[in-house]
């Protein structure tokens, strides 16, 4: 190996945000004593039975109390908020929104305290969410995944701000944390607090001021606490860029709804667009079974591709890009997104109906064997409707215990039914 090759491997290993195997994100056991989630049929609007089962499940699921093992990112806490948000979008159910607010409150309350919290590698008690127990006397090393927690909390704010009828109504929880008694006050507080995390940590350490691209912190302090050398000032991998984009994109949308800070909106959107444009400058177009597909690497800016993106991390790439596409703010077109769906159908799908563990259709010896897909891949059904019944059929056993998967299926099914009506 050359010296550059060694450094690349070291950096790749050190920066990986470890995700569970494909399928595991949607297979958590249900809360003790809870009702099971229900999807009654493959077509049509969400039913009263489906909605009630979802509400019953979420009532029994406790809000997260910390972000250990990234519970508030892609763990049960983070995926629960995203799932509830999707269900609120299609149902408008006020009880479900209130439960989502309960989770958002819990996440904000668990953020590192600037007076008594853990000391981060910066030497400060930064306003972020540590994802591991910190050894006594040692600083903590956390960074990119915090963007996703910002996005989850801001999702609740955005849903509130989209409904002007809620502005002066009081939230029935009695404002246990003092974040605001009315829905509008709570949403504004969420936005203000998430801006504080963006300004004090994420923008300061993870966004290059000249290119607006995401890089790991360019600091010897960060390098000193990393598990491996050579991790500072490196491009952030795509799945972690999706986490960061979640926070910036939803905050931009909230400030647009508030009409309070157009300069911030412009800056946040420029950061997301820089990430999206960077990805499409690096993704490679290939033809598989006469269909244009994509191949890309796990690390950003790796050319030629040596570390092919795996299905688990790739699900976050897809999640972030589909979110950016739906916003219509970042120049993404259906034609640009279609090859992702083709990649799933023609490169990753195996003859037995299972899916390879890497986006180029391969499965390395160290990988889990081919299997199902994580819920974010369902977003590609918008570009390939034939993927929906495939996903629906292979997910039947996971539906009863996975709010993320159930919400994704119902969200897409409901939207398709609305489009036909």
Secondary structure topology:
Elements: H1 3-15, H2 48-60, H3 76-91, H4 94-109, H5 146-161, H6 183-206, H7 220-225, H8 238-258, H9 262-282, E1 284-288, E2 291-295, H10 311-327, H11 334-348, H12 387-394, H13 403-420
Antiparallel strand pairs: 1-2
Major sheet details: 2 strands, antiparallel
| Strand adjacency order, main sheet | 1-2
The tally of domains stands at: 1
By secondary-structure content and strand pairing, the structural class works out as mainly alpha
The gyration radius over C-alpha positions equals 21 Å
The counted number of beta strands is: 2
- Please identify, by name, the CATH architecture: Alpha/alpha barrel
Order of helices and strands: HHHHHHHHHEEHHHH
Could you tell me the CATH topology label: Glycosyltransferase
The stretches of 5 or more residues where confidence is low (pLDDT under 50) are 1-17, 21-27
Share in helix: 40-55%
Strand percent estimate: under 5%
State the helix count: 13
Mean pLDDT: 91
CATH class: Mainly Alpha
Quick synopsis:
It is built from 13 helices and 2 strands; from the N terminus they run αααααααααββαααα.
